[in-house]
Structures are given as structure tokens and as C-alpha cells.
Design a protein that fits this description.
384 residues; alpha+beta; 2 domains
């Protein structure tokens, strides 16, 4: 007769999940909130992270634009009209001098009547940092004269050249960034409110409310966008102060671009209003405003953030195009579109190509917003 096989009993308490434990990293990931999971996914999109850093730097720059600009954007240097960009150098004749530029030797070409600027090695003009220069009113409120960089005493510093009135292009581009970058954010805020409100009503109630709002969306989207922008911008009275023109252009851009967001919100709410959690909220007596704002919108708010990020560059381009055509912002307001009006004359561009430099921040900003929007859209997709 065979001996009974000894049976071993583990004295430790039974843990049914002992063989299924996740690593601490995976456990933190799966236990994260929706916004944290979105951030963890976004971090893997290197191009989106770099674009976000560039945009953060640009928006931080506009907070202190007066300090970063070497000159007041409206200061005229009549002796240096259409001066070309100056090279910033560290060495002069084989020895270290520090950041400096060479002064100009000016002459007039009698054949073309073009001003000719030649660097003069005898004029070494060292740049000053954290210095006092042109006076300004910080955000139009506080008077000051502190600048990050200033030209040498009695010298000039035109890193990106000057325009037809002798105004420093770098200072005007930094100052113009404040208008061009904020007009996109303010315009998206307006379209965000309209799109969520009207799209939410159409998607939740349906019926004649949905039909009315949908028909209005289709009518607005049927108009060609640029001619509609031009017509509404031309309707602004020419005697309006520049700041009111700015708000008028912002309102126009926001009131036209809300339709795409409204359609996205409507389609999402049409699907979500039939879900069990929405039905439960209705049975518990929640009113429609609470159901839409507390239960439906948060479930796809990450998607709305991605859509809004992709809409901002469209509004920046709209303002730039209107100002370029002379129907948007007008001097003395400075924006990238206003600066590009100098480039309408092809002869001026052929002789003074640095007048096209304001297009560089426009391209960089639009690409950065598009890359960031792509990254946010991928991060907000729950199936990726």
C-alpha cells in the first residue's frame, strides 16, 4: 500500500491578486485620472512637447514685450531708413570684445538712388544689457525705460534691420506678437463659448432646436470665409480707435469660427445623451444645464481642448490676412499682419528682403500650434 503524499499548507493569508500585480509604474498609469493619462500620452509625442515649449516661450515673451524690445516700436531713426540687419559679433580683429555690432558708413548710390550701408571696422559699438533706453508705458499703464538689451551710447542696434520710416523691425515684431498671439486665444474663447452653448443645446434637445441651429451652421459655413471676413471688417467704421478695431476683429473671427466646434459638440452629445449615466442623471431629477455641464461635456473635454488648439492658428492667419489686405488692424496698432503690409511692394521686397521677416514668427507659431494640436488629439483618443 503506497504511502500518502504529504500535503503542504502555506500559512500565509491567501491573496487572490498575488499573481496579477502590476509594476508601480503601470499601476500609477491605470489609476490615473483622465487628464493625467492625457499628459502621460502627450509626453511621448516629442514634437508636440517641443512645440508646447516654443508656444510657452512666445506667450511668456509678450508679457514683457516692452522690456525685450531694444527700442519703442514707433521710434523713428530717420538717418537709418531701410538699414539692413546688423551682425552681432563677439570678436574684433582677433580679440574678444564681447557682444557688439559695427557702425554703419552711409552713402547714396546715384545710379539706383539706393541707400548703401557699409560696416565700418573703426566703429565698434558694444551692446549694453539690463540698461535704460527708450521710454515706454508697460502695458499702457506704467512708465518705464528698462530694457534687456540696448545699443551702445550714441550707437545703433538693428539686428533685423529697419523699415521705410527707420523703425526697428525686431522691436516691432516683438510688439506685434502681443496682438497676433492674443487675438487667436481671445477669438477661440469666443467661439468656444458659442460652440459649446449652441452645439450643446442642439445635441441634447434635438428636434426643432437641433434643426434650427444646424441650418444656421450650414448657412454660415456656406459663405466663403475670406470674402466674409473682408466684408465684415470693411463694415467697421474707420474712425474707431485702434483698440476697438482690435476687439472688433477679434469678435468677427470668433463669431465666424464657432461653427466647427458646435458641430463637434452636437455630434458627441447626440451619442452620449443615450448612455446609461445620462439616463440615470435624468431619472434622479438633474436639470438639463447640470446634465450637459456636469456629466456630458467633461466626458469629452479633452477632445475639445485639442480642437481649440487647432483653431487658434486659423484665427492668427485670418488676422494676418486681413491686416495684410488693409482690412484688419491699422497703424498705429502693430501686429505681424500690419508689418507684412510693408511687403506688398515687390520692388521693396527685392531691394529690402528683411521686410519679409515677420512671416517667420507666423509660420513658426502656426506649425507649433498644429503639432501641439496633433499631439493633444492623439493623447485625448482613448483607443490609442
Amino acid at each position: 500500500m503506497s504511502q500518502p503524499i504529504p500535503h503542504y499548507v502555506d500559512p500565509r493569508p491567501f491573496d487572490p491578486q498575488a499573481g496579477e500585480r502590476l509594476s508601480p509604474e503601470l499601476e500609477r498609469y491605470y489609476m490615473s485620472s483622465q487628464w493625467r493619462m492625457m499628459w502621460l500620452k502627450l509626453r511621448r509625442h516629442r514634437l508636440a512637447v517641443i512645440s508646447g515649449a516654443i508656444l510657452a516661450a512666445l506667450y511668456a515673451m509678450i508679457l514683457i514685450a516692452e522690456i525685450l524690445a531694444p527700442y519703442d516700436p514707433n521710434t523713428r531713426h530717420t538717418e537709418f531708413i531701410y538699414a539692413p540687419p546688423q551682425d552681432v559679433r563677439l570678436f574684433h580683429e582677433g580679440r574678444f570684445v564681447g557682444p557688439h555690432v559695427l557702425g554703419w558708413e552711409k552713402s547714396l548710390d546715384m545710379d539706383t538712388l539706393k541707400r548703401v550701408y557699409t560696416p565700418d571696422p573703426a566703429k565698434v559699438e558694444k551692446l549694453r544689457f539690463l540698461c535704460s533706453g527708450d521710454t515706454y508705458r508697460f502695458w499702457g499703464l506704467i512708465e518705464g525705460s528698462f530694457h534687456l538689451v540696448c545699443p551702445a551710447e550714441g550707437g545703433q542696434f538693428f539686428w533685423l534691420g529697419t523699415d521705410r520710416l527707420g523703425r526697428d523691425m525686431l522691436s516691432r515684431m516683438i510688439s506685434g506678437a502681443r496682438i497676433s498671439l492674443t487675438i487667436g486665444v481671445v477669438g477661440v474663447a469666443i467661439s468656444f463659448v458659442l460652440g459649446i452653448a449652441l452645439g450643446g443645446l442642439a445635441g441634447y434637445y434635438g428636434g426643432w432646436v437641433d434643426a434650427t441651429i444646424t441650418r444656421a451652421i450650414e448657412i454660415i459655413r456656406s459663405f466663403p470665409k475670406l470674402p466674409l471676413f473682408m466684408a465684415l471688417s470693411a463694415a467697421l467704421p474707420i474712425w474707431l480707435p485702434p483698440i476697438w478695431v482690435y476687439f472688433g476683429i477679434t469678435m468677427i473671427v470668433g463669431l465666424i469660427d464657432w461653427t466647427g466646434l458646435a458641430r463637434a459638440v452636437r455630434s458627441k452629445l447626440l451619442a452620449l445623451r443615450e448612455e446609461d449615466f445620462c439616463t440615470a442623471a435624468v431619472l434622479m431629477g438633474a436639470n438639463p444645464r447640470r446634465i450637459i455641464g456636469r456629466h456630458l461635456l467633461p466626458s469629452f473635454m479633452s477632445h475639445l481642448v485639442a480642437v481649440a488648439t487647432l483653431n487658434i492658428p486659423e484665427m492668427i492667419l485670418a488676422e494676418t490676412a486681413l491686416s495684410f489686405l488693409g482690412l484688419g488692424l491699422r497703424p498705429p496698432v502693430t501686429s505681424w499682419g500690419v508689418l507684412l503690409t510693408e511687403a506688398q511692394n515687390i520692388n521693396a521686397v527685392a531691394l529690402y528682403p528683411w521686410l519679409l521677416l515677420p512671416i517667420v514668427p507666423v509660420v513658426v507659431t502656426v506649425l507649433a500650434f498644429n503639432f501641439l494640436g496633433d499631439g493633444l488629439r492623439d493623447a485625448a483618443d482613448p483607443y490609442k
